[in-house]
Amino acid sequence: xxxxxxxxxxxxxxxxxxxDTLTKRFFMADKNNDIETMLxxxxxxxxxxxxxxxxxxxxxxxxxxxxxxxxxxxxxxxILEQYVTNPELLVGSKDI
Length: 96
Prior knowledge:
This protein is rod-shaped. The protein has 96 residues and is mostly helical. The longest helix has 40 residues, at 35-74. It has one domain. Helix 1 runs antiparallel to helix 2. The mean pLDDT is 82. The protein is built from four helices and no strands.
């Protein structure tokens, strides 16, 4: 895991390495005309790709949360407290 990498980024890099290894096995099986191994490796690659998509969604969510937290950190606590005690300021209506 690289310095500054999140856990999700580490999982994504590991997932890509596994995908590359499975792809190499697929092409080796294709070269030997081993259909059974090709089918097994194809299923494994599909599973890894599904995991990869889930990780990408987590990374995007993680980055969005970090961006929101950065913005919130710049707001003085007194102003944030006003929104907590008076939620109508956020909605713009007194019918909450």
